[in-house]
What we know:
Blueprint: H1 2-11, H2 19-26, H3 30-37, H4 45-57, H5 64-71, E1 76-82, H6 94-109, E2 113-119, H7 127-132, E3 139-143, H8 149-156, E4 162-165, E5 176-179, H9 181-194, E6 199-203, H10 209-225, E7 228-232, H11 238-252, E8 258-261, H12 264-276, E9 286-291, E10 304-307, H13 310-325, E11 333-335, E12 338-340
Parallel strand pairs: 1-2, 1-3, 3-4, 4-5, 5-11, 6-7, 6-8, 8-9, 9-10
Antiparallel strand pairs: 10-12
Amino acid sequence: MADSDTQPSVDKPNRVRTITDLAKIAGVSPGTVSRALSGNSLVNTKTREKIEAIAREHGFRPNQMASKLRRQKTGVIGVAIPLGHDVRQQISDTFFMTLLGHLADELTERGFDIMLRRVIPAQDEDWLDRFIGSGMIDGVIVVGQSDQFDRIEDVADGYLPMVVWGNHQEGQRHCVVGTNNRLGGKLAAEKLIAAGARRLAFLGDTQPIEFAARFAGAKEVAEKMGVSIRALPTHLSRDQTSEEIAEHLSNIEGEIDGIFAATDTIAVTCLKELRDRNINVPAQLKIVGFDDLPISSQTVPPLTTVRQDIAAGAKGLADLLLRRLAGEDTESLVLPPHLIVRDSA
Length: 345
């Protein structure tokens, strides 16, 4: 009976097997635990002492092999695509494939391999800490901030070799490469209005930071010019985009004469749907996209769009990451957008 009564205290240390287990007890993120146990000065003294005390109490020792691997060079760059805002979107999305193609060219020419991960943050809130702490990569490129801005900011406090493709905003701590999305939105709205449109719609999901900035820019111009604009949520997963666009067009037919699509992918799908409805572009409805993907010049009619230089962006991501791997704390790189005028507006 005595042995049975004391069994829980004997098993207690075995309940903490990983940094994640320890983090749950301490009430902090696994990344904070990892930094505290490695003596990182970014963790304040009180928190570090608390974590160390819990670790001692549970007999926890960090995985020495993983720690050793992290101190060595793997020759691998991690590329993570978080999809917190649209869990059904696929990496086969044309924009992702275009950027990843350029990025692979840049990194392999510099002697690095790539480890690619599609991430659903709702299923693993510590996805970024786990990736950088895996010992399998030398640094990480995050493609898109999605709804993970705060998570990326937290990691940036203690992890230098990370660069993010996304939108830059004043005061942020993580290093970004991306286009001036707000200015791009302004260019799109200005073009639609100059072409005669007075009742605009923005097709896209305004939750992701990049798309929100594009809509904000367009809205600023529309309000200044006395033109109406409404946001119509449109996702990028294959099984949703067509259905949502069809529904939007049914609801707004006759009420809208200009569409600003958050991406070329949305714009191309919209052109197809309008053609099926015998709605003439641009005579009856004008469209401007965003990205200037290769397909945008091949549509009927060819798509007017806001170009972001994806090839230059990929080069910037690689260049800044390599400088960070060398210990340099780099500034962000914000690329200028350019309006590419074709026949849809």
